[in-house]
Amino acid sequence: MQEFIAFNEQRAEIYWWMSSLFARELTDADLHEYHGGEMYTFLSGLGMTEELKAPVEAFRDAINQSNSRPDEQLELAADFCGLFLSTPKTGALPYASMYVGTSGLLNDKPAQDMNVLMNDYAIAQRKEFNEPADHLAVELDFMGNLIIMGNQQETEEKREELMQAQLSFVNTMLLNWLPMFAKECQNRDQFGFYAAAANLLLAFCKLDAAFLAGE
Length: 215
Fold this sequence. Notes:
The protein has 215 residues and is mainly alpha-helical. The protein is 71% helix and 0% strand. The chain has helices at residues 2-23, 28-34, 37-47, 50-66, 72-84, 97-100, 109-120, 136-151, 156-174, 178-188, 193-212.
């Protein structure tokens, strides 16, 4: 049981890490960590899973290439803004509504669905992150919290119920638009750091869905 709890904690940490990566520009302190031994060890561990090997290597290559940029922090911040804080015509906006909504506008049904889920599970959006509820960072943070909530259940029946909730969330709230988002990042991220991150996230979500489905 303890191994299962620890494994779930690792899953949550990955979702939270990816949430932070798509929530804001990386700082100099963040980049220091990205180029450090702990990140190398972390990525090496992820890459031991066959399904993640190629996207992990691509992301590691993107980190190494980023380190050679003349003003790494400012240039990555510009990449972030150009992709995620621009317009649908020029960027890869990180909102589910832009890919699976019906209006082509923000705060479409995916955002409304996220608000319902957060209310149902009493998982609040961080107050300092003032974005629509279907922002990628919000959805990934929610998933991490849902995983930990599952760990806290006292009965096998309740734990299984939360595992099924996680599976449903990954399939209906993430994998229904992440492939399109990752493709947009690939097409529009000239340097490739965030495109590699999006591809790694997509591969991880697919792997996690298979785990939750018992495949």
